[in-house]
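Quick one:
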Amino acid sequence: MACSATEPIDPDPATQPPPRRRRGRPPIHLSLSLNLVMPSQFFPERGDGPGERRLMRAVLKDALAVLFKYDATQDRRGQRLLAEAQHWLESDDADWPFSFVNVCDALGLEPSCVRERVARCRAAQRTQRRPR
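Output:
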């Protein structure tokens, strides 16, 4: 292999500049050899809590939204959704992980108090809808 006259030949490594360090993540082969701690392992959980609790909160929120949205609907789909949500709310079944009783228990709510409050709010909503 022939060298051109413009290429400098420097056999002494001490005179060569150090290689540039790349910023950002280390290469994958180095990452695997490091004993890394993920943020989820180090910091306590924040926000709504673990995924199961967030999902249970979303299930309860959806059921309440259905109960209030379709309370006086004439639509068949709305009536079906309302009946399902009403059945779920009134059920005392604790066998299913996402039953109303288990959801309330996981969220620290008393099922009877939630039922009573929902009934009062729905009754108030109905009286507001009536023409005077």
